[in-house]
Amino acid sequence: MKITDLFNIEYPVIQGGMIWCSGWELASAVSNAGGLGLIGSGSMYPEVLREHIVKCKAATNNPFGVNVPLLYPQTDEHIKIIIEEGVKIVFTSAGNPKKYTSFLKENGITVVHVVANVKFAKKCEEAGVDAVVAEGFEAGGHNGFEETTTMALIPQVRKAVSLPLIAAGGIGTGRTMLAAMALGADGVQIGSRFVASEESSAHPAFKKAVIEAGDGDTKLALKKLVPVRLIKNEFFNRISEAENNGASRDELMEMLGKGRAKLGMFQGDVDEGELEIGQISGLIDEIKPAGKIIEEIMEEFELAKKYMCEFNL
Questions:
Q1: Is residue 273 in a domain?
Q2: CATH number, domain at 122?
Q3: Of 139, 136, 50, 40, which Cα lies nearest the Cα of 90?
Q4: How does residue 296 score in pLDDT terms, banded at 50, 70 and 90?
Q5: Alpha carbon distance 123, 145 (integer Å)
Q6: Inter-helix orientation angle 150-160/174-182, to 10°
Q7: Helices in 93-231 by DSSP H: which ranges?
Q8: In degrees rounded to 5, what are phi and psi of residue 86?
């Protein structure tokens, strides 16, 4: 498969580099289980990122990467540390793929960029990235303004670009993985399912909220800022009411304040924090080791594929 060859991994399963949830313990556990683990640098100061990279290198001999959101002011420092520490895979998101791709590739790094529409998938190809993640609006956290579902997005991106394609958003089981690949994906990126893993750095209260969430318990909010999918809680309800009453961008920014995601996902305030999780949370009902999650996903994937073949579907 293109993705397994590109990253030199056993399974075409990439763990999302989620803020506050994706430290070295989760990334190394996923990599040790045959997937590609990612350290989420978006919630880390530069020296904290370095510490996580060093610990991840010590914990696994398998490939791992770092996810770098390009909207943060310390991105240059993050990139410098990634190169100094010899990381060979970088996923970029939330910005222009042209900004760092050439520089990273000149330093021997495989570059993947996350998009939510066809327009930016084409820009990724022009920028020379090695692969693209197409993320539907089922995904947790920051999302696309277009609100295109994964099922609609993946075939459109597949038609538009020839790059290796990784599907994300609403994927957390073997069956959803098979569905994504039937739509044209070469692999999948999974975030929410790994939030509810033993190695995730998410607060136990947030993990509990994830496994208790049902269908319809998440929704996009803050569309005047950057759309973000959240579990409905007291903070979400206030934001939603303000948006329905026509609150301005500045008013929403004031309500959001600083550190709201850290408050919810890392510190465990499930009432007043941002609880970023995807719609697939309705299928997550147990916290498990990351290795066991990958094992179950791949077993279900193979069984579902066998079922389809047996019925000539």
A1: no
A2: 3.20.20.70
A3: 40
A4: very high
A5: 17
A6: 40
A7: 101-106, 118-127, 150-160, 174-182, 192-195, 204-212
A8: 75, 25
Q: What is the pLDDT of residues 83-130, one digit of tens each?
A: 999 999 999 998 899 999 999 999 999 999 999 999 999 999 999 999
Taking the CA atoms of residue 155, residue 159, residue 162 and residue 164 in that order, the dihedral angle to the nearest 10 degrees is 0
* Enclosing domain of residue 50: 9-201+281-310
Question: Is 42 a domain residue?
Answer: yes
Kindly state whether residue 269 falls inside one of the protein's structural domains: no
Of 110, 152, 159, 111, the C-alpha closest to 135 is 152
Cα–Cα dist 252/305, whole Å: 46
Q: What are the residues whose beta carbons fall under 8 Å from the beta carbon of 258, sequence distance 6 or more?
A: none
The two three-digit tokens of residue 275, written as one number: 């609880």
Assigned domain for 153 exists: yes
Place of tokens 């991994």: 9
Q: In what order do the strands lie in the sheet with 228-231?
A: 141-142, 228-231, 218-221
Q: How many domains does the chain have?
A: 1
Q: Which residues pair with 221 in a beta bridge?
A: 228
Q: For residues 19 and 264, what is the distance between their CA atoms, to the nearest angstrom?
A: 11
307, two tokens: 């079922």
Would the pTM of this model clear 0.90, i.e. be above it? yes
Contacts of 277 (CB under 8 A, 6+ apart): 140, 141, 192, 195, 209, 210, 213, 218, 229, 230, 231
Two tokens at 140? Answer: 């947790």
Cβ–Cβ under 8 Å, residues 69 and 38: no
Query: φ, ψ for residue 143 (rounded to 5)?
Result: -140, 175
Task: Read off the pLDDT of residues 212-223 as tens digits, 9 standing for 90 and up.
Answer: 999 999 999 998
SS (H, E, C) 264-311: HHHCCCCCCCCCECCHHHHHCCCCECHHHHHHHHHHHHHHHHHHHHHC
Contact 193, 284 (CB under 8 A): yes
